[in-house]
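INSTRUCTION: Work out how this chain folds

Token vocabulary: learned, describes local backbone geometry

RECORD BEGINS BELOW THIS LINE
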Amino acid sequence: MPYDLIIPSRTSRLDEINSWFADTGKRPTIRCRMAHMLTAYELTRQGVGISIYPAAGGSLVYPDVCVREITKPAVTASYVLIWNKSHQLSHVAQQFILYICADIGIDIKQMGNDK
């Protein structure tokens, strides 16, 4: 690949970005993986590489930096619900979890003790 990439440090993002190149038979050159988007943005400004980060980074504007939304392939994100089973949740938190589980078709009672 002609350009080095600066990407988020999360392994799921690395896997997703690698999958975008699967049909080309090539792998992207990952220059570095950063937890903080602002650091990646500044490295891009300084010419270290091209950053691929969530769209929230597009709100940063410098005249010498180009920001474009990736539309092909479609970009998706996965989320998880996390709560401490040994602590009593507030009524609102309980209702929120029940609402989300019902919306995605999961019976919270069938999730077992490990979730």
In short: The mean pLDDT is 79.
